[in-house]
Design a protein that fits this description.
single chain; 641 residues; Immunoglobulin-like; Neuraminidase; four-stranded mixed sheet; four-stranded antiparallel sheet; 32% strand
Length: 641
């Protein structure tokens, strides 16, 4: 039975004095792939309260509401179900603008139901829409003052409070600062916040200064200007502290939006991990309900997962076993991959699957036909299980320690050959390309020498390949014919790139690992965004390979507290305090709401891995940048809603 009313309060302020906002028109909408459906309106009374009669209280998509009075527009994301009460204030508006950044055009929110529901989950990581207060996620470790996200939301809310409370010139100044270069001036406060979310490096310093000159009704705010107005949520709960995050390496999203994350080592040791972490779309551990997996997932021969993890069209999950630590005890006896059903049930037995000369695989990738491709780092081959059947394995030589695999629009597989992970060995990299037809594997591109210490390769919609080359700190662009047409370095926070992905606008995202020297301490990690090769979606005035992210990259600084593991222990075993919530990244991936998930693969201090029998290199979790990228196309069947 539907609730009779959508009711609540429109107010200004949260942690400081609260002021009710009378005379605002509150409108409830249901988002659709096109124009939203208006469900009803009401005007707030003297105490800011409102009530809108309802004919429905649940949807496959989401509900959202706006509160409007002249140029001041506040908003809240209600989600797929109407609750008993709602508060609409500046903080709910900040959360709505950032979580829905990829679904907002002007004043309307629209998009696929699946993506909108994920975005609504992330909205609740920023704010409690029932109370208008900061979420428990932001108020608690590993966030709180271990990152600057909580304070960033409050500084942005103070920007709005100056407009809502009538500070002279505040609204005009916000509109001016939120106007992107060459773009249209926002028409109201919600559009201004959405523009900031969509162009986070635009006028970052002046916006901070403006936030300092208006009423501080949300405390504590930021104490220094950010390099960009990004909001990021950090997650580090694996579901079981006996299996804490220890070097998350790469991830793949299933049809429910769950993130399956290959985990390298046992936290605090150099030894191989034997589990995969599975997180819900909001970053909480999967709990096994309704046929979903329960995190962490183990079995199936897992030992030392590397970078390789993929989800096949049938929903099965494949994980490459690489091995870390002591080769005599911690590496797979034979080259193997592990396979799991969509619910986490092991399919590959205690020894995993092998075949085709597979040895220490890195990239493990499914194609549209369900063939499983693996970069066999240890043997120098590319290995394919046609139809996912290891009994039919085929392989061909690839090059020196192959690492990455990505598919071109015509179905060919690009393979990157690393020449070495970077330490202690590093050599020239190369790229090759292959085709699988009728179970036979052929090479379609002679090896192209490019880069050094190469890692991830990704492709765009035009057929270009993009290669992360760590040793010379470059991202290379190869055209569909395999010719190197670009080499980009020193821009957008790039520093020894490792992870790489392409978004729905064909822009290139880079996860940076930082220098590999023994004394290197990568305490300034950033996420890089480069303009892509597609002129139709590239920002005006930028060429392919130009930086969209600021010179620092998109960062996540501490707000003053040291980073702790999920169990409360220090990041480093010797007790040295770490103030780097974003660490060395080997992967960045984009979900269907445009959130960019960045893994903390290694701790910032490189020497923590030595000596090899007692080191503890594994990073501590995942950082999720909210609403920052255009969602990529879904590769197989439409995801669940």
């Amino acid at each position: 039975m539907a609730n009779q009313n959508f009711a609540g309060t429109v107010q200004s302020g949260g942690t400081g004095p609260v002021a009710p906002l009378p005379g605002y028109t509150v409108t409830l909408y249901r988002a659709t792939p096109a124009a939203p459906t208006r469900l009803g309106s009401a005007t707030t009374s003297e105490d800011g309260s409102f009530s809108i009669p309802l004919a429905e209280d649940e949807t496959e998509s989401i509900f959202y509401a706006t509160a409007v009075r002249e140029g001041a527009v506040l908003a809240t994301i209600v989600g797929p179900r109407i609750g008993d009460e709602a508060v609409i204030n500046e903080l709910t508006t900040v959360a709505a603008a950032f979580s829905m950044a990829q679904f907002t055009d002007g004043a309307a929110i629209a998009g696929s139901a699946f993506g909108l529901r994920i975005a609504a989950m992330m909205n609740e990581n920023l704010v409690d829409p029932r109370t208008g207060a900061s979420s428990q996620v932001l108020l608690s470790p590993p966030n709180a003052d271990q990152t600057n996200a909580l304070r960033s939301t409050r500084s942005l809310a103070n920007l709005l409070a100056g407009c809502v409370r009538g500070v002279p010139g505040a609204e005009d100044r916000l509109m001016e600062l939120a106007t992107p270069a060459g773009g249209a001036r926002p028409g109201n406060t919600f559009q201004a916040l959405a523009s900031i979310a969509q162009h986070p490096a635009n006028n970052a310093g002046p916006l901070f200064n403006q936030s300092q000159g208006v009423p501080t009704v949300y405390s504590p705010p930021l104490f220094s200007a950010p390099n960009a107005w990004t909001l990021a949520v950090k997650v580090n709960d694996s579901g079981d502290d006996q299996y804490m995050f220890g070097g998350p390496a790469n991830m793949a999203f299933d049809r429910n939006g769950y993130a399956w994350i290959a985990n390298n080592v046992v936290q605090g040791t150099p030894n191989s991990g034997n589990f995969v972490v599975v997180l819900k779309p909001d970053g909480t551990p999967a709990d096994g309900r309704d046929g979903t997996p329960k995190s962490p997932v183990s079995g199936g021969g897992l030992i030392g997962p590397g970078w390789g993890i993929t989800i096949a069209p049938n929903g099965n999950v494949w994980v490459g076993n690489f091995g870390w630590g002591d080769p005599d005890t911690q590496y797979p006896v034979n080259g193997t991959v592990s396979a799991f059903g969509p619910d986490g049930t092991p399919l590959s037995g205690d020894a995993g699957y092998g075949g085709g000369g597979l040895d220490r695989p890195q990239a493990t990738v499914a194609d549209a036909e369900g063939n499983i491709w693996m970069a066999s780092f240890g043997s120098g081959d590319v290995v394919v299980f046609p139809g996912g059947d290891p009994e039919k394995a085929v392989s061909l030589p690839s090059g020196d320690e192959p690492f990455g695999i990505a598919f071109s629009p015509d179905g060919d597989a690009w393979v990157s050959n690393s020449g070495g992970l970077g330490w202690p060995k590093v050599g020239d990299g190369s790229v090759t390309r292959y085709r699988l037809e009728d179970g036979a594997l052929t090479q379609t591109l002679d090896a192209v020498t490019v880069g050094a210490g190469c890692k991830v390769i990704a492709t765009d919609s035009l057929g270009n390949a993009w290669l992360a080359s760590g040793a010379d700190s470059r991202v290379y662009q190869l055209n569909p014919e395999g010719e190197v047409v670009g080499a980009y370095t020193g821009v957008g926070g790039m520093d020894a790139p490792w992870g790489l992905c392409v978004d729905g606008d064909d822009h290139v995202w880079v996860g940076n690992f930082g220098a590999l020297g023994l004394e290197s301490d990568y305490t300034y990690a950033g996420l890089t965004r480069l303009a892509g090769a597609n002129p139709a979606t590239r920002p005006a005035g930028l060429n392919a390979g130009d930086a969209i992210s600021p010179p620092t990259g998109y960062t996540l600084p501490s707000a003053g507290q040291p980073v702790l593991l999920h169990n409360g222990d220090p990041v480093y075993k010797d007790g040295t305090e770490c103030y780097s919530p974003l660490m060395r990244a080997t992967s960045c991936q984009i979900d269907q709401a445009g959130n960019v998930w960045v893994v903390n693969n290694w701790k910032p201090r490189f020497r923590t891995n030595f000596p090899t029998d007692t080191g503890n290199p594994g990073g501590d979790g995942v950082v999720i940048f909210i609403g920052l990228a255009k969602p990529p196309a879904w590769p197989w069947a439409e995801p669940s809603s």
